[in-house]
Amino acid sequence: MLKICPTCKKEYKTYYNRQKNCSIKCKNIYMGSISPNGRFKKGHKSLFAWKKGSHISPSTEFRKGNRPINYEPIGTIHSRTVNKKQHCNNKFIKIAEPNIWESLSIHIWKKYNGKIPKGMIIHFKDLDNTNYKINNLQLITRAKHINIHRDLINAFKL
């Protein structure tokens, strides 16, 4: 069925008798909610303006100073498993609010030796990433680190 849009006066094809406009944009203009340039008209009232400032459930709302159930204090250590097969645990320590975490190996290195230079990373000498003793941590370049682990990767491929 061919109809003419009352807003833009273009002819359009419709299969529904109820459809009065050729597009949603023309429908909104026709209904008077937005202007032809696509913006709301001045003085437009939101559909949910009556809800603004209302407190529907004040007993369960957030209050200033409340801490969530999953809040962790500074100094908390969490371990994250990479996957179930390797059991590779990476430990992280919370160093600041809100939720600023750092790798435990980097944190220990900074505590004893200071800042880590750019391009350098912390490496576990005995390749056991659960041993966080300072004498097991080593500062090396990324290139050297790749060469150390390349042999291990190639060994697993065979």
3D structure, described in words:
It is a single chain. With 158 residues, the chain is of the alpha+beta class. The chain has 2 domains: 1-42, no CATH class; 77-157, Homing Intron 3 (I-Ppo) Encoded Endonuclease, Chain A (Alpha-Beta Complex). Helices cover 22% and strands 21% of the residues. It is built from 3 helices and 7 strands. The strands form 3 sheets. Strands 3-4-5 form a 3-stranded antiparallel beta sheet. It has a two-stranded antiparallel ribbon with strand order 1-2. Strand 1 and strand 2 form a beta hairpin. The longest helix has 16 residues, at 142-157. The chain is elongated and about 80 Å long. The mean pLDDT is 82.
Biggest sheet strand order reads 3-4-5
Percent of residues in beta strands? Answer: 15-25%
CATH architecture assignment of the largest domain? Alpha-Beta Complex
Tell me the domain tally: 2
What is the element string, with H for helices and E for strands? EEHEEEHEEH
Mean pLDDT across every amino acid position: 82
Task: Describe the secondary-structure layout.
Elements: E1 2-4, E2 11-13, H1 24-31, E3 77-81, E4 89-96, E5 100-103, H2 104-113, E6 120-124, E7 137-141, H3 142-157
Task: Identify the notable features of this structure and list them briefly.
158 residues, alpha+beta, Homing Intron 3 (I-Ppo) Encoded Endonuclease, Chain A, 2 domains, 3-stranded antiparallel sheet, two-stranded antiparallel sheet, 3 helices, elongated
How would you concisely characterize the structure shown here?
The protein has helices at residues 24-31, 104-113, 142-157, and strands spanning 2-4, 11-13, 77-81, 89-96, 100-103, 120-124, 137-141.
